[in-house]
Write a structure and sequence with these properties.
- The structure is a single chain.
- A two-stranded antiparallel sheet has the order 1-2.
- A hairpin with a 5-residue loop joins strand 1 and strand 2 (89-92).
- The chain contains two helices and two strands, in the order ααββ.
- It has helices at 4-25, 38-44, and strands spanning 80-83, 89-92.
- The chain is of the alpha+beta class.
- 31% of the residues lie in helices and 9% in strands.
- InterPro entries: AttH-like_dom_sf.
- This is AttH domain-containing protein.
- Keywords: Signal.
- Residues 1-29 form the signal peptide.
Length: 93
């Protein structure tokens, strides 16, 4: 039979080991010389074979609602300043 003191020591040891394991799992990743992101990876890759963006190109809808697979990346966003029927100004993104 284990004494109350033995149970307490065992419980404290178990909690200490669990806490230590938790802390080691939360350690920061080792530093690298170069942090990479998806955008930086895409930028570093060659653009050969992709169409170039041309300033002033007129979009034609509904054709331009579709994907433009000949470009390396496509990013659409909409921002607008609207007024409700009650005269309230609303910003939309």
């Amino acid at each position: 039979m284990i004494s109350a003191t033995g149970k307490k020591v065992f419980s404290i040891s178990l909690v200490t080991m669990a806490f230590g394991a938790l802390l080691s799992a939360c350690s920061p990743a080792p530093e690298t010389h170069e942090q990479s992101t998806t955008i930086s990876n895409m930028s570093a890759q060659s653009s050969a074979g992709y169409s170039e963006v041309v300033q002033g190109k007129t979009l034609q809808f509904p054709r331009d609602h579709l994907a433009h697979n000949d470009y390396k990346i496509e990013w659409w966003y909409l921002t607008a300043n609207l007024t409700t029927s009650k005269g309230e100004d609303v910003g939309v993104q």
